[in-house]
Amino acid sequence: MTIYQDLTQLGLFDNITTAAGYRRVFEKTLANLPQQSTVLDWGSGDGRFTYFLLKNGMNVTAYSIEDNLKIESQLRTQWPTKFHYRLHTDPCTLPFAPETFDAVFSVGVLEHVRDTGGNELASLGELKRVLKPKGKLFCFHLPRKYSWIEYLVTALKLPRYRHNYLYAKQDVIHLLNESGFRLLEIGQYSAVPRTMLSGLPDFIKNSRLFCSAYNLIDTVLTALLPFLTQNIFFIASKE
Fold it and tell me: Is-contact 162 153, C-beta < 8 A?
């Protein structure tokens, strides 16, 4: 719960219950990556995941094609030797030498590469190039085809929450096979919406009890009714 409070206090989330939408991301990362790993946060955005990685002992390069990192000064002050920030305006290439990173993370990024003139296979090829042998690729928040939340967003005409490209597990497996990655794990998560909770009163959405109850409902629905889930995650290895 502390990490969700930290991210909310930094202004990276509106409330702890929305921030807890990253719990599967955080759990899978810690379960599959040792501390002190050298990692790339590919498409670091406002810095929320970079903060988590640094707080958990990683050496992190935050990479972006746009300067949206809200907490750069805090990260440089708190982790002066472990944090690096790299802006690079070309969306189709990475400014790093081959075999630089132990792991690369895509958190809500891979599905947007076509929006910036690229494609998934080309991006996966670049990520594979900068990974060390046996290095791992972690991908989270890949929007799932057939999600009830995507149907609801489309029906209500809410473009802010809509994704242009959606994926099924077979689409992911095909992309990884084509790019030469070995799939280690794939799964689904997030059966209930999180970003829409911002309209709730602060005393509710920032309540630890409400957050825990919401997480429990999400866990149960994901286990019992996986077809409801919004996101796909996968972990793959460079062979």
Answer: yes
Q: Is 181 helix (H, G, I), strand (E, B) or coil?
A: strand
- 209 CB-near residues (< 8 Å, 6+ apart): none
Residue 235 β-bridge partners: 138, 185
| Residue 150 in tokens | 């995507």
Q: In the chain, count of helices (H) and strands (E)?
A: 10, 7
- How is residue 212 written in tokens? 């825990």
What's the rounded Cα separation, in Å, for the pair 155 and 27? 32
The pLDDT tens digits for 159-187 are 666 678 899 999 999 999 999 999 999 99
pTM: 0.93
What is the pairing mode between strands 83-87 and 181-189?
Answer: unpaired
Q: What are phi and psi of 188, to 5 degrees?
A: -125, 155
> Is the alpha carbon torsion for 227, 233, 238, 239 positive or negative?
negative
Which domain range does residue 54 map to?
2-238
Q: How far apart are CA 184 and CA 138, in angstroms?
A: 10
Convert the pLDDT of each residue in 45-65 to its tens digit: 999 999 999 999 999 999 999
- Per the listing, tokens 């994901």 go with 222
* CATH code of the domain in which 196 resides: 3.40.50.150
Q: Looking at the 3D structure of the chain, how many domains does it have? A: 1
Q: What share of the chain is helix, strand, coil (3-state, %, to 5)?
A: 45, 25, 30
Reduced to 3 states, what is the DSSP secondary structure of residue 125?
helix
Q: Are the CB atoms for 184 and 176 separated by under 8 Å?
A: no
Nearest by Cα to 138 from 43, 5, 2: 43
